[in-house]
Amino acid sequence: MLKDSRTNRFLIRLSIFALCAIAPISVIYIVVRLLVTPSGYGAPFLFMLDAYMLAEALFFLLVHLPRKWWINRPAAPYAPLKTRAQRREMLVRSWDATPEPRRYVQMYFYGAPVESLGREDVKRWLRWRLWGRYSLHGGKETEGLMVDEGELEEYVQYTEEVLGHEFPEGATGNEGLVVREEPVRLVRRPLMWYGIIGIVDTIAFVGMWWRGFSLYARSAESVRSFPLRPLSVLGKKSPSGAFSYWYREHTKKARENGHLPMLFVHGIGVGLHFYLPFLKDLMLSPRQQGVGMIALEVLPVCNRITAPLPPSEQIAEEVLSILQYHNWENCVLVTHSYGSALAAHMFRHAEAKARIGPMILVDPVAFSFHPPDVAWNFLRRQPTTASEWQLWYFASMDSDVARTLTRNFRWLESSLWREDLDLHFNQAGRTKDTRVTVFLSGQDIITDVNTLGTYLSRSDQKVKWYRQTPQRRSQEGWKSKEWTGAEQLEVVYLPTLNHAELFEETTPRHLLVKTVEAYTLSARKENYLLGVWGIIYHPYLGSTDRDLENKHEYDDKKSRMSETQSGGQYESQQCPNVENDSNKIRAQRRES
Question: Domain named AB hydrolase-1: which ranges (predicted)?
Fold first, then answer.
């Protein structure tokens, strides 16, 4: 992510303006050329310019505009919860995972105060959340399950109890944040941009191949997305019809030693190119020799023109088919950002879930789908900082990314909950490793890190979170807690990093590599100390109980390194919340 500065804000906005201007300039240029010089094109360089401008104009008129209309078709009916018990459980779970219910509701209604909402406004919102029915601007509802009005009234009363406010009868016209039903907002990309994506994809292909990975491509992969992927013809056929992936063999020696292979799922961006330094560090690690890896390619979130993602049940089955093909009975799952949504799909599929062992979730967004923070910050926020502009144009407003997160998005099936992790830890008869580490970036512009970290680390689960005092709700001990590798759930707080910057900066990336090593390597192997990597963040990172119990040795090592730690770039510090309070939301809505 770009660091925020006046220079970076100017450069990123200039870049966006230049890319957006190519299409209209091309159309105007072609029209003028046809009117001024209808025949004869003059010098060769002018012919090349004409050809490029014509290509850009045709791409805008024949590809972008029709796809914009196509993507904005109404979403398919979606009824996430089939029974009354499921709906009741989901409503209670959502409120239990919310420290500030009023802020929660205000953000869903574009910052409108709770006192300004009518009973019918809240009913319409709950119909969408629990039945999959919603009407925009008071119009006809989209299809979904038939709504039991008595049951709905019960949920409104429960919401009133949580908020401590009784809604007046009637509707006030306040619309909810329902991106699945609203018009899809996207910003045009020129043909040049897709040419750049093609070059980046080719660099990633060469980089992965050079590091010993083999491509398993879908059938006709070379022509199934744009820009085209001609080098995919050199790969093997993928056992999945929906995903291509890169594979490194899990050797017989690694299996005998009890090492686990790694499944990696990337986030929204330009594909695996962004993650090459991370994968390179893993490949160069002596401890990772022979450990298998699969790097999944999720093309609909890679700034490409391609087919949409399949339904969540099929996603889990497709990933399962890949694991079965390579005989992976157990693996370490590593995800970044949107990749955590695919982890949620696997959690809801019994066979796929059974093959997940330890998990490492970097900047996960799946825990934050039930509150409105991710939807607002990713799709509706008016950008102000350099990193927000970068996120807005190069991720949020891409046509296929926007389609994935709106028309094809199912918030419930893509959500992870603390209860999911508890079930992961406590499955009956489970004997394999199920530890989880979550990396949170303190300056994350997508998720509310303070709320998420507290949600994952809360020890007092019996008391309603929203009923606790502000001091109890905002526990921050998790920010300074040391990573040991021995606990079932650990949260690593990186106070100075923005979303995805862990993969960009060497020191924190090495911390992630060492964490992957601790999870993939057998516990029988000798424990090891991170050295200056991770110690700057957390003093000790181990992988067996033997050294963790040797407290005297640990204290000696810690004291010897105390001088090195002082003044470190990544000392734990207080991190402000992402600016998304209700007043700012209302101001941004007026501006947009």
Answer: 263-403
